[in-house]
Amino acid sequence: MTAMVTAFLGAGIGFGGWMVVRAFQPRPLPLDQVAAILDRQGIVVNTVPDESEQLSGGQSLLAHIGTSLMRALGLSEKPVLVDQLRVLDKSMERHAHEKMLAATAGFALPVLMGVVLLAGGVAASPLILLLVGIAAATVGFFYPDLPLAEKVDERRRAVRHAFSAYLDLVTILLAGGAGIESALEGAAESGDGWAFAEIRSALRRARLTRRTPWDAFDQLG
Q1: Confidence of residue 4 (pLDDT cuts 50, 70, 90)
Q2: What is the pTM of this model?
Q3: Distance between CA atoms of 53 and 33, rounded to whole angstroms?
Q4: With the CA atoms of 123, 129, 132 and 137 taken in that order, what torsion angle do they form, in degrees rounded to the nearest 10?
């Protein structure tokens, strides 16, 4: 039993080392992922994907495992999580990668502690280390979900403040004699930050799809 548990822990350490090596081997972003990023609603459309959305080889493997596990547990389809990631402009793959990274770190911590104790001449039960590692990995897997609600509230407050300032700018431009479309576009170009980028993106989508700005703002809201 002890030999089997020890072999299992050794395999886990080896797998972790392999993932670290793979993480330093960058991989080009597949074309289907680029198309998915461009088709996402409510983001600023760029010709080059955001570096934060690009996952290297090892990261992509963790994201794939995490996404599969979330799908098996029914987490990836939860409307609350989907809405939170949408507001934070964060992909499910990136979130799954963070969850698996935290789970891997949680599992590796007691293993490293056992190695340190063994180096100091203190024998630790492999079974206890395995159970502690599984518990820590479980906690690590769910930990990235905890700060999402607070981050979403902060971003929504920022949008409300920015949109209030945007409407003030529109009012000023209208009072100066600008047309409605010119006022909407000009006010959007006058602001900086994520919220104004979302407003500009909404107006751009409305213009390209021949919809009214009010429909675009309703969708953004």
Answers
A1: low
A2: 0.59
A3: 10
A4: 140
